[in-house]
Amino acid sequence: MTDTQFESSGKADGAGGAGGAGRARRLLHGWSANLVQMVLGLTQQLLLIPAFLHVWTGDMLAAWLAIYAAGSLVVVADAGLQLRAINRFLAFKSCADCDGRTASFYSALRRIYLAIVGGFGVLLCVAVVLAPPSVVLGFQATPTFDAAMLVMILGMLLTLPSNLVSGLYRVRGRYGRTVWLQNAALLLGQIAQLAALAMFGSLLAVAIAFVSMQILLAVFLTAFDAPRWFPFLRRAGKPPFVSPSLRWSLGQFRRALPFAVANITELALVNVPVLLVSALVTNRVAVAQWGLTRVIASLVRSLCLQVTLPLAAELGHDHATGDRERLRRLYAHGSVFVTALACLTVAGLLPFWPDFFALWTHGSIPYDAPLTVTLLLGSAAVAPSLLALVFANHSNRGDLLIRTKGLQLVVFLALSIVLIPRLGPLGAALAVVASDILVQFGLLALMVMRQTLNHPFRHIAILVLMGGAIVASGWLIGQAIIALVPGSGVLHFVLECAIWLVAVGLLASPLLNTALRERLRALIPA
């Protein structure tokens, strides 16, 4: 409990002190947990597919993917309440009775979550009876589809209250712990899915196997783990039978609205382009090109978001406790780190993605170079704004979020309607990238940087120069390897990637010198 108590006190030592060591440990713990979570997510969505196809037909697999997607969208029912809770927990750090006020708010908001689960659960059951999902989505011939859809959505809905616990862990320096527990549940869920597939082979059995592990995790976090780490939760400010007033409850939804808009916009930027391209483009090959190419751009964005989440928890702590100097340094260094990671990833993908795409699709889908370059370069360009976005979520900038993310959604939809009929998938890519750069970077990120850093424009200039140098260097190294090592096939692709990693590693090896790293960090404008 030393980290938790240290965080609650609002004190922050320098980078070289105990606080700096604790912060570095928490960040590394969080990043490693998020990296494993990304790998498990890819395993669920990519590597389990051959196992499913070994037992199921293509129609059954399509049905499962629809069920899985529906379960993933249940997060929208949170309505921004998790981020609302995180901001309140952070604000309590400057109060005299931090633990008591945290416990009282936690108890009241938990009742709201339970009401959401109960209300949506009833509506879901009624909707399944009145409009069976198999009829709506065209899976009438697929056995147990309706039951599996109901189990998946209802099961994920039951896990919703654990969002409140995850928010508390994030604020109190235990972010890595909750993600590692989620990783364990994902891994056990994947094993359970394979067992259910082998034993029963039905959609319902696989859906039960998946959600059961998520529900067990939610129960463990809420009922056992959180009270053990935070004993003050047992002494909530109100008696258990007293519910929060309707006016107070509605007020929480109103204050959570900006965070809900921001999250819905992020989901829309990932999922809506697929629907728009499918609806507005008649060439089915082009639609397939878009769907497959968008996967890699989404992966870069997800990687950056996963890296920023542990940073956001630390930035939110510094903002809540008024430690502006530490906040400024961490934001500047974090911004450079996220940008460098995104640009390095894009630099490796640009030269070798055509070879991987050919192997992945067995040459059945042609490679679209302009589409790939647009999406990947756009992912690198928007990387600094992702840290600004998550920091805005953790510093209670509701007005800024609802204005900028709402505007971004409008700009994206307007550009999509204009560009997709004329340019096809490239128009969708331009719409996504333009809305990111013009609104999320040009408005949201710029305003957050101006409020946080002393030299925001010098910082942006450094990011542009560094990002351009990394992408250009990585791409040129890749082109040289392609020219010097001709060939094709899986082994050739692996060899190319290995040579590129070695070359980039040698180029970056001077950064292993601690003195050089410190000198470079001192040059970062903050």
Automatic annotation (TrEMBL):
Compartment(s) of residence: Cell membrane
PANTHER family per record: O-ANTIGEN TRANSPORTER-RELATED, PST FAMILY PREDICTED COLANIC ACID TRANSPORTER
Keyword entries, A-Z: Cell membrane, Membrane, Transmembrane, Transmembrane helix
Spans traversing the lipid bilayer: 35-56, 62-81, 112-135, 147-168, 204-224, 256-281, 330-353, 373-393, 400-420, 426-448, 460-484, 490-512
Topological category with respect to the lipid bilayer: Multi-pass membrane protein
Species of the source: Bradyrhizobium daqingense
Domain of life per record: Bacteria
Entry's Gene Ontology cellular component terms: plasma membrane
InterPro entries reported for this sequence: Poly_Biosynth_Transport (IPR050833)
Annotated protein name in UniProt: O-antigen/teichoic acid export membrane protein
